[in-house]
Amino acid sequence: xxxxxxxxNGQIGKHLVSIIxxxxxxxxxxxxRNQEQAPFFEHLGAESAVVDLEGDIESIAKAAEGxxxxxxxxxxxxxxxxxxxxxxxxDGAIKTIESAKAAGVKRFVMISSFDTRRQAILDxxxxxxxxVAAKYxxxxxxxxxxxxxxxxxxxxxxxxxxxxxxxxxxxxxxxxIPREDVARAIVASLENDSTIGKEFQVLNGNTPVEEAIGxx
Length: 216
What we know:
By secondary structure, this protein is α/β, with parallel strands linked by helices.
């Protein structure tokens, strides 16, 4: 399976490309913003494509040609304004979904926010509400397609070393999870067709990732 990782230079994205490249039955194609980011992925033996997520659908679709799945891990980051939240977390996600359709790629994994239901927007602090709203509408757009989607809602992200063990479900109390374990949950979801058409929250836990995802 060849996987286009959108947002590959992000912290989850780098873990994801590394894990994919370590597997014998998968390979990653890293979609990055500029050529200066390419050496990290070249060192891993991964192909890269330089594409501006704020550009046109055609450029993203071209990067998606020949892949079997797309993972959207891009994010505007905590230190940008509402404008970047709209352009990356909302418009960038929707353009990537449309690019998957244009390129004939059915499998799509979205990395969302922990809770993107309408009430979560209303309950969020003013500074965080635009991000939750952007994720809400991006998730809704994906659900309305005929893509083989999975939506993953991770808890609070940390840079701790992954444990390889998680907790999955819905309506969970928010807790933390290492980005490395989120990446492992993505890979397990790609390998498990039972996650198609489903979404789940993922947190630190005691169940091996493959087992937890297999029970979705």
